[in-house]
Amino acid sequence: MADAMKIRAQLQGDMADVKVLMFHPMETGLRKDPVSGDLIPLHFIQRVVATHNGKPVMDAQWSQAVSKNPFINFHIRGAKTGDKVAVSWEDNKGEKASIETTLN
Amino acid sequence: MRTQLPPTKSPVEKSSRRKFLRALVLGGAYAATFAAGWLRPIQLLAAEWNKAAFDAKVLADALKSIGATSATESDQILLKAPEIAENGAIVPVEITSRIPGTQSIYIVADKNPQPLVAIFDIAAGLEPFISTRIKMGESSKVRVLVKAAGKFYVATQEVKVTIGGCGG
Predict the structure, then answer these.
(1) Which of A46, B13, B82, B141 is the most exposed place for a label (fewest CB within 10 A)?
(2) Residues from chain A contacting residue B119 (CB–CB below 8 Å)
(3) Cβ neighbours of A70 in B, within 8 Å
């Protein structure tokens, strides 16, 4: 899943501005397939964890009401050049993805 | 006698070869990133995905499930959301908490089929700031709760939704 997510982290002084885009349908279970008319089953990211040099800084729990192809932006304090920022997600079907970047 | 020059590669061919090589290198880098991510066990701050809270169909039940039956209104929670959202499928929400010791930020859309949208647990290394995009089924309040030192604080904003973003 090389296209599961994108990350961009920019160092602003000692703060890292991190933007993450995840490619996921985030199906609510309420939407009908336009062809068959059947309901499309629930399929959404439930858990998102961000780490700074391996240490967790954010642990999010989501419902199906986070928009399709979720976007999050957060700020890490005490960051410096060479630090690693990683984000991973897991959905309700057990599918997972993660991405890591190095601050520069 | 005419000399035949060897056919030179057109610029188009060259650039597509370059693109292919670049894709190959990038692909490798991506693969390495994912391999690293898989191998590292990630320590979680919260225990379990809060099923009871996310399944709750009415606001009061959702708030009860997260332990926020009483919350103090606070102007120290800055909530940025559009007054009118043309597309309920993509409603940008930006939250900054100035409440000292902010541990968790909760996003709730009061009239969604399941009101609780997201919980963000925040460790010391993170600014109490989150920007994301949510779905709203109909016009309602967006409610942001902040948990700090075991207490709940709240800020709300009315968002008018032109086209709902849950079914379709």
Answers:
(1) B13
(2) 60-62
(3) 132-133
pLDDT in tens, chain A (104 residues): 457 899 999 999 999 999 999 999 999 999 999 999 999 999 999 999 999 999 999 999 999 999 999 999 999 999 999 999 999 999 999 999 999 999 99
Inspect the interface and report whether the beta carbons of B33 and A100 lie closer than 8 Å.
yes
Domain co-membership, B28 together with B64: no
Tokens of residue B74, six digits: 């606070």
Is the same domain home to B97 and B142?
yes
Whether B18 and B66 map to the same domain: the answer is: no
Minimal Cβ distance to A63: which of B27, B33, B54: B54
Please tell me the pTM assigned to this model.
0.82
In B, residues 147-166, which contact A (CB 8 Å cutoff)?
A: 165-166
Q: How many CA atoms lie within 13 A of B52 on its CB side?
A: 8
The structural domains of chain A, ordered by start, are 5-102 (2.60.40.10)
Give the structural domain span for B129: 51-163
Strand partners, A81: none
* Chain B hits for A49, Cβ within 8 Å: 42, 44
Distance CA B53, CA A37 (A): 30
Q: Report if residue B59 sits inside a domain.
A: yes
CA atoms within 13 A on the CB side of B12: 0
